[in-house]
Amino acid sequence: MDHEYSCSSPCTSRSYYDSTQPSSGATSRSSSEEPPFAAFQQIEDVHLGVDLSRFAQEVWGLEKAAAEKILDMTVTPSLDSGESHWAENLGQGTNDDSDAHGHKSFLDLCASLLRDASKELGDEENAAFSDTFWDRFRQDCAPSCESRRVPDVVNTWKPLPPDGAPPSLATVKCFFELKGVSQERECRGEEVEEVDEDGGDDAVMDGSANEEEDHDKSMSAAGSQDDTDDQRSKYSTPPKRPTTTLKRSLNSAKDVHDEEGPSAKKPRYNNDEPALKNSLLPLYAVKALASSSRYYVVGLVVDRSTVTVCYFDRSLVACAAPFSFTEQPSKLALALYAMNRCDRHRAGFDPHLRALATAKEPDSEPTWPVDRVVGAVFEYPDTPSSPGICFRVTGVIRSPEELLGRATSVYKGQRRLLDGTFSEEEYIHKLSWPLQTSVSEADVVNILKARLPREAHQHLPELLFTSTSTPEDLSLPQLRLGLNPGARDRRVLRVLTGKLYTPLWEAGSIENFKKAWLDCVECLHLAYKLGGVLHRDVSEGNLMAKPLPDGTVAGVLNDWDMSQFVGDDGDDELSDPGRCTGTPPFMAIELLRGPMRHYLRHDLESLFYLLIWAALHYALAARRRAGRVHPAVADWTCITADAQPNWCNKARILLLDSSLAQEIFAAAKPEFRGVVGEWIGPLRNLFVNAHTCHWLRTKAEEPSDEETLGGLLTFKTFMDAIKATPRTWGIPGYLD
């Protein structure tokens, strides 16, 4: 469908660089301002009312007989006379002392119920019981824990960190939100401390956020948008202080049959307002999943006396039927016992991520997950597509900021050699959760290498290891709970290890930049013409440079997981703001407007925008990229429902008499002045002329093909505009 645009509307979303570079400091946000936070925006499929006993069995692995025995217990919560009303008012105190008192009372009750359940099952002395609780209101808690970015309570392995510091989310089994606390504090108008993402709360709680983040070198450093509905989150990064808003998506949540049937007493919750509404639990889930390549995570919302147990993975969210722990304390005992007894695999941790010491002992099975990804290893056995690999992580390139969807993580590091040592050369390790129906990047690269001349192989990524795991392979609880999404929405875990390349802004000279860019242009066309593949995601993170011994570079066209084979039918050939393909700052203007088939000319247009972007931001001699987006193209980075600011800005650039284009030309970095005159200006004229002629033909109802706009936008006209002679690759008639 077409969208009506008014080019005067401002963009209020956070920008591209806000999501790809560390923040320079904390900023404030009004509580009434809606943040573009992916975890809140994306929860469109929440399964409610899952039976708690089944949840404990299928997620945490508790035996059915044990679950039934705990539920049959007769438990009377022991509250002293001074605390007789605390359960009904948990989190509704008027000062921090009463908040802390409510936390302590709740944890005392939890400890009591856990002892009762253990005694009932006769395993009070079980050595496997090594868990403990951490409470951010405890008296010796570190001052940084006052931020709401730290969960209220976490269940984790002993020992706790010293000095009251919060445990890393990389090792947390389960987290709790005592919901009323945050609501009451916000109602009192208290400002919650915001933290620089380079340190502070995030650095303490996130097992990967406090590691070195290298946004400059990667096979997929800038990332891309999926061809699914999870992609509006690519540049919608978490605000410094999360608000507590979950919109329409939760109001249309699915229900799952509650095997327990109706409760004898009406519980104190509203079926029309799910527990995750106004909850910070999705934020904690995002950070926990991202901290250590975790498969799934569980959290509890405690709203006064009502408890809801919630499950999060990369495909869906599920909530057990809420219950009141004052009326049904045995249910809380069941949840506490099951979470405390589960091992790290049942808690959702990636079994391939191990501490380096345990990796040297392949027969050993670690009990605890690693608390820091950097320094740990990913170890995989042989797969049908490649031999096994052991990869030691030396840095974090990209951590996912969305809850549901592709959620790509990228690490850099070294691979273990045959002699047991690790390579000096660095590689990348990429994990993502694409739709099962999407094309595998490894398959595309292998097919292209089989179809393209050997000379062109240097312009494709070199992959060392690849694997694909289905939900069945990973034994995800969603299957056992009967909540697995339909075939169209099923996600798989894809792992890829390959060579680490250099981003274009580190090319070292304008000559190297131009050579790498041209190599990628030619590879793009060659893959389309001979390989039958459209890339569909040209961006600054996907055009890379490979240094050569003579000081020059070769361009490498990277990240083929958004690509599509030419001639494939189906919805994947459409692009719109809800089902789009590409990285917003570099997407062709037509793809921002609504459903449309993706053509080669759209990728050529992305290459044009990349030149403009580079001219405004790259300091090649210094091997640096500007820390802030240039104002002339700031609208490219704004994410709105209709892509309005991005579309309007690019439309102004493509006007016949564009003052914005002249402003951009004048603002280009000194190194790019020649590129402006030789490439950017002529390419702009090419696109202006092609779009104008196509519009006039369409208005006059004259024929004009969409694929090349009447033959005006082709690889040949593109190369002619910049006066570059393309290679023929030794193929007769290649350019015909």
From TrEMBL:
InterPro entries reported in the protein's UniProt record: Kinase-like_dom_sf, Pkinase_fungal
Biased composition (Low complexity): 19-30
Biased composition (Polar residues): 1-18
Domain of life: Eukaryota
Region feature Disordered, mapped onto this chain: 1-37, 77-98, 185-273
Compositionally biased region (Acidic residues): 191-214
Entry protein name: Fungal-type protein kinase domain-containing protein
